[in-house]
Design brief:
CATH topology of the largest domain: D-amino Acid Aminotransferase, Chain A, domain 1
Number of strands: 14
CATH class of the largest domain: Alpha Beta
Bound molecules: inositol-(1,3,4,5)-tetrakisphosphate, adenosine-5'-diphosphate, magnesium ion
Structural class: alpha/beta
Distance between the termini: 14 Å
Strand content: 15-25%
Shape: globular
Number of domains: 2
Strand order of the largest sheet: 5-14-13-10-11
CATH architecture of the largest domain: 2-Layer Sandwich
Largest sheet: 5 strands, mixed
């Protein structure tokens, strides 16, 4: 929280936009930005994430609200950069984790979004869903669960026996166990028959495929704010498909931003968004249990069981840039963190 050198909103409104602020690839110089802002946000994000997240509309609005973004140089000590009020990051290396944790020990006043060990929980497709499995969100009206799944660490030849012993029903979605930001970790396949299972490549999770009318709900969480969008997903698998398909099918990358189904002409029973109170409860519970403030949930609703929802994926710091109005929600969130910190400062806490 900058207590000196503040610039009022009125002054900011009239200010001429520095072109450097409009280009995500050339963030403002640290000291200059810090001097003009009340909230300094350092970021350590991949190039791809910088491009999708730090869009001109976010930078413009942030600037108006007295928030500046500064790129962190990971090769230099963090204490020699900034000073930061908030650090945003999505980097999976152990070195970065240690670097950040060491810095946070010395600078507990800096808000780190989010703690590296909490993020790590989402980098593995088994641990990411554990908290959901422990949730007791099912009510008289709805049920929230995860598909049954099995982890295979090695020895592909043992998969058919392991699947039979776990009582999993085919078809199965095979997903790489570790999610590390590479496109390989998103290479999924669908296994139709038991005999082909040894062709899979562990370590992976095998998850029961759930028919859901081909529509997925992406639920974005930013602190306490929740936004949900519809995306096209995989088509349902029927008995005919099951009887006539054998082998392992590589799945295309589905449910990405280009697959928006928000304006599609859909059967209302399939298109209907999950009820708001359910999403709020889910967001609140998962925020607390995961210890994270920035994530999204991929959710599907079982076809023919209109009140049963399955959570199939949770992503840290997802593609917020494709979420309608994200610039407002995100800057409001950053401001609220700044406010809380300022109040704690005033009360000597
Ligand atoms: O695992 P899934 O469910 O696919 O979620 C992905 C990841 O979060 C991607 O980020 P990352 O590549 O950092 O893992 C993100 O890409 P961007 O960060 O480029 O936006 C995608 O945004 P969409 O493209 O909006 O789906 C988001 O859908
Ligand atoms: N168990 C499942 N049943 C039906 N469809 C699924 C299942 N798991 C994944 N999918 C489909 O595959 C897509 C990608 O799977 P997901 O687990 O979200 O992996 P990623 O992390 O690569 O996004 C989902 O968005 C959904 O369309
Ligand atoms: Mg997903
Ligand atoms: Mg994912």
């Amino acid at each position: 929280m900058r207590l000196h050198g503040d610039v009022s909103d009125d002054e900011e409104e009239g200010a001429v936009m520095d072109p450097a602020l409009l280009s995500p690839s050339s963030p403002p110089a640290g000291a200059a930005a810090a001097a003009a802002s009340r909230l300094v946000v350092g970021y350590a994000l991949t190039k791809k994430k910088v491009k999708s997240f730090l869009q001109p509309k976010l930078l413009l609005l942030a600037r108006k609200k007295g928030i500046s973004f500064i790129s962190i140089d990971e090769t230099h000590p963090l204490s020699e950069q900034g000073p930061f009020d908030i650090i945003l990051h999505k980097k999976t290396s152990k070195e970065w984790q240690r670097f950040l944790e060491d810095y946070h020990e010395v600078h507990p006043e800096v808000t780190v979004l989010d703690p590296p060990n909490a993020i790590e929980h989402l980098n593995n497709r088994q641990s990411m869903l554990e908290e959901v499995a422990d949730l007791n969100l099912s009510s008289f009206y709805e049920e929230v669960c995860t598909p049954r799944q099995l982890v295979i660490m090695k020895d592909p030849s043992s998969i058919p026996t392991a699947v039979a012993m776990a009582g999993l029903t085919l078809p199965l979605v095979a997903k790489p166990l570790v999610v590390d930001g590479t496109s390989k970790s998103h290479e999924l396949s669908l296994a139709y028959d038991e005999a082909s299972l040894p062709m899979l490549d562990p370590p992976l999770v095998l998850q029961e495929f759930v028919n859901h009318g081909g529509i997925l709900f992406k639920v974005y969480i930013i602190g306490e704010a929740i936004q949900v969008v519809r995306r096209f997903s995989l088509p349902d698998v029927n008995t005919y498909d099951l009887l006539n398909n054998v082998g392992i099918y590589r799945l295309p990358r589905v449910s990405c931003a280009a697959a928006s189904a928000d304006h599609a002409d859909l059967d209302p029973r399939i298109a209907e968004l999950p009820p708001r109170p359910l999403l709020e409860k889910l967001g609140r519970e998962l925020r607390g249990r995961l210890g994270l403030r920035l994530f999204n949930i991929d959710m599907i609703r079982e076809l023919g069981a209109n009140d049963r929802y399955y959570i199939i994926d949770i992503n840290y710091f997802p593609g917020y840039g494709k979420m309608p109005g994200y610039e407002h929600i995100f800057t409001d969130f950053l401001q609220s963190l700044g406010q809380n910190k300022y109040q704690r400062c005033l009360s000597g806490g």
